[in-house]
Amino acid sequence: MKMKIVDRKNFSTKRDVESGTDEQRKAVLEILSRVKQEGDQAVLAFTEKFDRVHLASMQVTIDEVEQAQKEVSQEVRQALQEAAENIRTFHEKQKRQSWMQTSDTGTILGQLIRPLKRVGIYVPGGRAAYPSSVLMNAIPAQVAGVKEIVMVTPPDQQGKIDPGVLTAAAIAGVTEIYKVGGAQAIAALTYGTESIRAVDKIVGPGNIYVALAKREVFGFVDIDMVAGPSEIVVLADEQADPCYVAADLLSQAEHDPMASAVLVTPSPELAEQVQNEMTSQLAKLPRKEIAEASIRDYGAICVVADLEEGIQVVNELAPEHLEMLIAQPFDYLGRIENAGAIFLGEYSSEPVGDYFAGPNHVLPTNGTARFSSPLNLDDFIKKSSLISYSRTDLLRNGEKMMALAKSEGLTAHAKAIEVRLQKERGLSR
Q: I need a surface site. Which of 55, 286, 380, 404 has the fewest CB within 10 A?
């Protein structure tokens, strides 16, 4: 099959991504309710139903983690350790400090920053294992100072977790691991069960049932985002290598049948070259069927008048991943307004960010890069405002506060200031 080529006029920047059917939402609500009421019994029953495995215990033991590390090749262990160091170094730069400021009148204002106490990370299973997701979710939490990092991930039909995932968990400082996935895992992390204590926040991507469950429990716990299928947009000019462009588009298309891969280019010649290269590379992919469905339903090559129009398209798409395969990418960087992660130049293929460079690969999808950010240290901290108001400032500004309170009809607010002013001024109440 060939990737479709369209002009700007016939290219839509609105992506219609399934947000869950009524049947799926109903199923998720039932799972959440049962786990809340029945605890472990419901979690184990749903695990047996959906993952086709009967578990005596959900918790992964230390022995299982140690055995998993022996099963992973030295090459993969070394790569995971180096990737972890890169991720840790990058996120260390995001650290914030508590602060206080004292005025010459004695008032002290400030902000107190504390890490969350207990965080749950969801690691997908199913079509593939994702050790990189463990690193990207757990390491920022660890750097932020979170003491309890709880990982949930679905087991296989033998009741086991992928050795690479367990190895990554050990490297990233995960403190507890449970063999549970799907909406039942989100429910357990939210409400707590006999085996799994409730957390303060849940992060990490999952399937539609996980996404719907996270949306439902927001408010009982915090969540990072409701992540959709993966996306890549490549902005390329006539100098781009069509082989590189095609390979990078397919790197996302192979994720999921609903993944989106889009090329935006002012070069009709490049468009045709990439179209042909995609067909050639696609035929050799082990995950060909998945990538074909993605390209057919959500892929396109958009030919624009020039790079300026191309940048307009990019900003409207607000993609999860943006590659800039153009002659002078830094000259145009300032014009990019919306993107989860930006990859500049031909050596910055999207998998560089997915696995190794250091920035987080948990990114906003489905256009939400217009208003949200990659997973970062701020997701794992909370801030408290500090106010120590001085007598001098209260006497100086109290009447203003009372005026504002009375303008809103909140007379008790005004009274709380008034009684203090009367006392400090030696007036009877």
A: 286
User: Any known ligand binding at 321?
Assistant: yes
Q: Is the model's pLDDT at 427 over the cut of 90? A: no
Express each pLDDT in 217-234 by its tens digit. 999 999 999 888 899 999
Q: Binding residue per annotation — 413?
A: yes
Q: Is 54 annotated as a binding residue?
A: no
Which of 334, 357, 380 terminates a domain? The answer is 357
Q: What is the residue-averaged pLDDT of the chain?
A: 95
Give the domain range for residue 264.
5-12+228-357
Please write the tens of the pLDDT for every residue from 273-305. 999 999 999 999 999 999 999 999 999 999 999
49 falls within a domain: yes
| Distance from the first to the final alpha carbon of the chain | 85
What φ, ψ does residue 348 adopt, rounded to 5°? -100, 55
Instruction: Indicate the DSSP class of residue 218.
Output: B
Paired with 223 in beta bridges are: 202
Please tell me the distance from the alpha carbon of residue 398 to that of residue 405, in angstroms, as a whole number: 11
**Residue 361, marked binder:** no
Residues 124 and 107 in one domain: yes
Residues classed as catalytic: 320-321
How many domains does the chain divide into? 3
Task: Report strand pairing: 108-115 vs 381-388.
Answer: antiparallel
| Structural domain contains residue 99 | yes
Specify if 293 maps to a domain. yes
The verdict on 319 and 304 lying in the same domain is yes
Q: Are residues 187 and 330 in the same domain?
A: no
Please tell me the predicted confidence (pLDDT) of residue 18. Answer: 58
| HSE toward the beta carbon, residue 252, CA cutoff 13 A | 32
